[in-house]
C-alpha cells in the first residue's frame, strides 16, 4: 500500500526538490532578503542557499508579520466556505451527473440538461465570474432597493451561494466525466455482463459492486479537483471581493504590493520560490491523505475488479 501511495505522491516531492535546486544555483537566490535583511548564516554554498529557500516560509511566523497575518486570517471563513462548498458539491453533483450521463443519456429531456452544462463548461471561469458581476451591477441599476436580496454581493448570502456554485462548475464537470468513464468501463466487466445475462438489473448491483469499485478512482482525482477550485478562487476573490479574500490577500501581501496590499517581501523572486514550493508540498500532503483514504477503502471493501 505504501509503495502505491508513494507512486502517486513522489512527483510532487520531486518537483519541490527541482524548484529549490534550480533556485539555489541562481545568483539571485543567493541574495534572498526578508524586509531587506538577509538570512542569518547564509553563505554562498549551494546547500545553505537550498535550506534557506526551504526555510523561508517560516519567517512569516515571526512577530513583525503578526498584524498582517491577523488581517489575512480574518478572511479565512469566507474563502474556506467557497473551497469546502465547491469541493463537496463537485463530488456530490459531479458523481450524480456522471451516473445520469450513463443511464439517462438516451432521454430527450436530459439531453437539453446536458446542453446547459456543456455551455457552462465551455465558458472560462473568469468569463462566468465577469458575467455574474456585471449582470449584478446592471440588475442593481434597474432594480433599485433589491427588495428580496437577490443581487449577488458580499452582503447577501444568496450572492455568495451563487458564486460558490459557479466556482464548483469546472471541477464538477471534470468529476462527472471521470464518473461516466469509470462506470462505462465497469459495465463492460465480466462479472456485470454475467449478472445482466442472468436477468439481474444493473441498479441492484450498483451500490454493492459497481459504485464501490469507482469510489477509489474518484478519490484519486481529489488533488486535481482541488487545484481547479483554488485556481478559480483567486479570480473570484479578485473580481468579487477585491482584498476581502484570503487567497488574494495572501498573494498581494507576499510581494505584489502594486495590488494595494502591504508587501511582506521586497524580493518577489524569493516569494515565487517559496510560493511554488509551499503549494507543491501542500498538494503532496493533500494527495497523500486521499491516497490513504482510497487505499483503506480498497482494503475495506475488498475490491477485486480494479481498473487502474
From TrEMBL:
UniProt keyword annotation of Membrane present: yes
InterPro entries per record: MetI-like (IPR000515), MetI-like_sf (IPR035906)
Keyword Cell membrane: yes
Listed transmembrane segments: 12-33, 75-96, 116-143, 155-175, 218-241, 271-297
Cellular component terms per the entry's GO annotation: plasma membrane
CDD domains: TM_PBP2
Biological-process GO terms, alphabetical: transmembrane transport
Main location: membrane
Keywords noted in UniProt: Cell membrane, Membrane, Transmembrane, Transmembrane helix, Transport
Record domain ABC transmembrane type-1: where: 92-299
Cell compartment(s), UniProt: Cell membrane
Bilayer disposition of the protein: Multi-pass membrane protein
Protein name: ABC transmembrane type-1 domain-containing protein
Organism in which the protein naturally occurs: Alicyclobacillus ferrooxydans
Amino acid at each position: 500500500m505504501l509503495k502505491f501511495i508513494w507512486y502517486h505522491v513522489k512527483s510532487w516531492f520531486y518537483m519541490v526538490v527541482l524548484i529549490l535546486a534550480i533556485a539555489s544555483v541562481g545568483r539571485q537566490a543567493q541574495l534572498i532578503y526578508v524586509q531587506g535583511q538577509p538570512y542569518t548564516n547564509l553563505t554562498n554554498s549551494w546547500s545553505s542557499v537550498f535550506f534557506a529557500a526551504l526555510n523561508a516560509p517560516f519567517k512569516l511566523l515571526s512577530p513583525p508579520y503578526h498584524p498582517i497575518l491577523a488581517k489575512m486570517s480574518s478572511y479565512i471563513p469566507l474563502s474556506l466556505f467557497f473551497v469546502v462548498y465547491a469541493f463537496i458539491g463537485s463530488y456530490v453533483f459531479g458523481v450524480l451527473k456522471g451516473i445520469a450521463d450513463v443511464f439517462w443519456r438516451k432521454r430527450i429531456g436530459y439531453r437539453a440538461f446536458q446542453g446547459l452544462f456543456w455551455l457552462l463548461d465551455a465558458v472560462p471561469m473568469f468569463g462566468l465570474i465577469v458575467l455574474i458581476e456585471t449582470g449584478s451591477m446592471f440588475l442593481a441599476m434597474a432594480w433599485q432597493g433589491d427588495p428580496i436580496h437577490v443581487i449577488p454581493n458580499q452582503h447577501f448570502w444568496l450572492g455568495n451561494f451563487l458564486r460558490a456554485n459557479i466556482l464548483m462548475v469546472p471541477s464538477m464537470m471534470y468529476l462527472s466525466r471521470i464518473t461516466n468513464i469509470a462506470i462505462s468501463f465497469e459495465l463492460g466487466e465480466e462479472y456485470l455482463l454475467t449478472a445482466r445475462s442472468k436477468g439481474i438489473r444493473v441498479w441492484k448491483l450498483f451500490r454493492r459492486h459497481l459504485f464501490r469499485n469507482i469510489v477509489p478512482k474518484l478519490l484519486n482525482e481529489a488533488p486535481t479537483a482541488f487545484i481547479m477550485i483554488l485556481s478559480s478562487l483567486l479570480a473570484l476573490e479578485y473580481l468579487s471581493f477585491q482584498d476581502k479574500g484570503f487567497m488574494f490577500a495572501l498573494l498581494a501581501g507576499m510581494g505584489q504590493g502594486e495590488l494595494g496590499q502591504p508587501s511582506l517581501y521586497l524580493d518577489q523572486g524569493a516569494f515565487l520560490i517559496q510560493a511554488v514550493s509551499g503549494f507543491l508540498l501542500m498538494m503532496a500532503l493533500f494527495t497523500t491523505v486521499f491516497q490513504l483514504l482510497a487505499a483503506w477503502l480498497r482494503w475495506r471493501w475488498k475490491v477485486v475488479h480494479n481498473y487502474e
